[in-house]
Automatic annotation (TrEMBL):
InterPro entries: MnmC-like_methylTransf, SAM-dependent_MTases_sf, tRNA_MNMC2
Protein species of origin: Paenimyroides baculatum
Pfam families named among the record's database cross-references: Methyltransf_30
Swiss-Prot/TrEMBL keywords: Methyltransferase, Transferase
Protein name, entry field: tRNA (5-methylaminomethyl-2-thiouridine)(34)-methyltransferase MnmD
Length: 218
């Protein structure tokens, strides 16, 4: 991927994929968007002391860094797994400025440097296991309390929003587990409902009217 770092409106960085014409985050603010979607409307909704997270799209590592900050601030234990098909290079992640925005005991760069397929206890509150593979190839017997679905938008990678991929996310979740994403496309809503999710719409981050929170009900 041919990518370049950009500055979003809240001052935090994102990446622009030149051949796709798409950014990793909202241009209105990367940290602002990720905090609103995956923390405030995601992991904060789970009333457990230990929370198992599966992230679709490690990307810049911002969601992981914000979740680590949440774990420390709220005395939670987070078991975090993440999938990424096209990991950032050191030249890319070393330039990202998220450490200026997120109060974490571990730097963003340290999270990127953790070896792939190695479950590492980063702090007493947070462990990280990264998988460098395509989403469609990912397999696990683990179960999760929340899925962060942070892939590129439907208009850019529609195959990642297929019934098959969404079904896998459903199957990975515990009962009452949460699927959260920045998207709110009608077709995606219908597919989630057909699979068995109870779908809720809520206010999106700045620049986006709505987003999806879906709950696995048996």
């Amino acid at each position: 991927m041919d990518r370049e770092i950009i500055v979003t409106e809240d001052g935090s960085h994102s990446l622009f994929v030149k051949d796709m014409g798409e950014t990793f985050h909202s241009k209105h603010g990367a940290v602002q968007e990720s905090t609103h979607v995956y923390i405030k409307n995601g992991i904060e909704l789970i009333d457990k002391e230990t929370i198992n997270v599966l992230e679709y799209g490690f990307g810049t590592g911002l969601n992981a860094l914000l979740t680590l900050e949440f774990a420390v601030n709220n005395n939670k234990k987070i078991v975090y797994e993440s999938i990424e098909a096209y990991p950032l290079t050191a030249d890319e992640f070393n330039l990202l400025n998220y450490n200026d925005f997120v109060k974490s005991p571990i730097s963003l760069q340290r999270l990127h440097e953790i070896p792939v397929d190695t479950n590492e206890m980063v702090t007493e509150h947070f462990s990280l296991l990264k998988h460098f593979c395509k989403i469609e190839d990912f397999k696990t017997n683990n179960k999760f309390d929340i899925v962060y679905f942070d892939v590129f938008g439907f208009d850019y990678q529609s195959e990642l929003w297929s019934v098959e991929i969404l079904q896998k996310a459903y199957d990975f979740l515990n009962t009452d587990g949460i699927f959260v994403t920045y998207a709110c496309k009608g077709l995606i809503n219908r597919r989630l409902k057909e699979i068995g999710f109870k779908v809720h719409k809520t206010a999106g981050p700045p620049g986006k009217r709505e987003m999806i929170i879906a709950v696995k009900k048996i």
